[in-house]
Input
Amino acid sequence: MTASHLVRATATATIAALLLAGCSRDTDRETGAEAPSTPERATAAVDFELPDAQRYHRMATYPVYLNAPADRRDDETVAEISTVTPDGNTVIYTDAAGKRIGFLDVRDPANPVGQGTLSLSELGNADDQPTSVAAVGEYVLVVVDTTGGDFTNPSGRVDVVRVADRSRVHSVELGGQPDSIAVADNGAFAAIAIENQRDEEFTPPGGAEGGLPQPPTGFVALLDLTGAPQAWTPRRVDFDVETARAAGLDTPEDLEPEYVSINSRSQVAVTLQENNGIAIIDGRTGVVEQIFSAGSQSVSGIDTAEDGRVDQSGAITDTPREPDAIGWIGERHVATANEGDWKGGTRGWTIFDAGTGEVTWDAGNSIEQLAVRTGLHIEDRAESKGPEPEGLAITEIGGRPVALVASERSNFVAVYDVGDVAAPRFRQILPTTAGPEGILPVPARDLLVISTEADDAEAGVRAAVNVYGFGEQFAALGGRPPFPSIVSGDVDGTPIPWGALGALTADPADENRLYTSTDNAYGPSRILGIDLTRTPALIDTELPITDGGEPVALDVEGLAAQPDGGFVLAVEGEEGLGNQLVFVAADGTIQTRVSLPSDVAENLGGQGFEGVAVDGDAVWVAVQREVKTDPKGVARLGRYSPADDRWEWFGYPLDTTDAEGDWIGLSEIQVHDGSLLILERDKLNGPDARVKAIYRVSLPTEQGNVQVLPKTLARNLLPDLQAGRGYTQEKVEGFAVAGNGNLYVVTDNDGLDDANGETVFLDLGPAREALGG
Output
């Protein structure tokens, strides 16, 4: 008898007792069932529900690789900054990775149509890169960086392109490397930030690698737009070094303008990101009216350690804001997204009095807390700049100013009412594809366009143009369910951290509750309780899993609540021998571990246990992929009997796709109405997704010998996942039928690792109807 078998054999009586008699528990007053002791319930700190007439509705997610030349669709293809033609019908975006600009027809915002691209090689040199675009009348101004890596000799230009035939009618040399562009509301001029960016691999004398100064210094170009394009000429606006020094800017001898915005009085606000400063310019005269420091901020209640756990007890002290995007709120105030660069980044956004430079309001830790509550916290950026607010735009809705703030790393845009600049009011969070960069309100059509810059074809994470419509007129066409569909509550002002949900199980003692768990994307392991009576569904309890009194980190892929208390976990190992059934008491204490039989474990790769279900005195498991000794295309379902420590194995026939590199696997198993329900999925996402489905398998009556069991389709989940009008998620991994009879499904967001991070939690209604009878 092997050592692992000895462990299982000596634990057999204990496991059987757990299944038959339950663990320490309380009694539910209504059902009489004995339930696990309830941890402290969290409360909803943010109201995410809004009437249809007062919210943005997601209309479409258009992956821009679909608009690229057919032979370049597997290359990096992004959408960074976008503009829209005056009629609001054509979005034009920059694709620096592809060295082109793209055109997208949004006359029907629910069904954008790609209109192809214009390569920069047709406008100049194949190595040129577009940095920004702005529509003016029948033209689009294409801001082009022509530096080509020679940081000491930066150069750039603006190409004036007629939208109708995409021909260049004029080109304006800028005398430096440009970044962003903004056009005055009256169309009289454009402002362009000439950054003359630093070389991040160069070390200046006496400085640090990538630091300043690295001359030449930057400036702002004002491009007069009077008359025909051939007459458009730039004016250069330089900054006084001593004035910048007196204002407390970092390295004022090398200023680097990053982002520009223009108000109704033709004042240009400019961020000097690396210098931690802001300048105000009179766009009509070119006079620099004001330069002030963006200042520093101390922020507490954030995660500052990249350690695989979300520890919100960290803080940053006196950190420079280093703002990126900027926008005017009226004529007196500016708002900045404080992404940070080489020295700073305060994980939030700030409103300044543009006349005095004083801080009117600062977001503190609220952006990061918003990410945690919605499952969008990115742990591998905890030590750097967290969610990194980078993009920002100001628009108006119902006569009130609204700020739109984009988190580059956590992949969302937060919406705030800033009618009271001293007390902004959170309104809504909008999910995006990875790396939101450009935020483009289209107020004439009540639209919002968000372009994203992160693209990885191999991982299936593709950049996109995300289209939203505001108000009731878009409600019927908007995605369902609205985001967020699941959030966490707060305990003592701190949100319960979560993400990477790969398991669901019904609460035996409460028909309107489920349990879920995070996998090893976040640790230590916890069992989370979900209140289904709230909209969105609310994670309001967390139960740490402990061994010998110490928290443990397990790759929990399956979870089953026992009828009389406690839980069974399906824990996936890095290799076959690491896969275990883990029996946990109602207080989270690990009581017993059961390993796989050696003949199975030794022939199992990195994809092992994925789902678990309790059926009377037996435990069912789903193994994600084939055991090496089994036929290709056949995964295993296992039935474990604790009473005699016996495993039985059955075969499950996997679907196939014709996609190169794809594979099909199992994600969840449940026992329902005398059958096994199996969740099966491919590795594809977005427009390529093919297999996301629940199948029904009859409970076998005979002893298992790996015979293949026939399956029937219970529900194709692809339409449900596509109904949200987002990027179709790859990892639909958990489902359960709650005590209330409804079928619930959840996706695993992988902790934002090679994923856009959105979690989709679906209530598909009565299971008898949702599963085809």
Summary: The chain has six helices and 56 strands. Residues 3-21 form the longest helix (19 residues). Residues 541 and 595 are 29 Å apart (CA to CA). Residues 1-14, 20-36 have pLDDT under 50 and may be disordered.
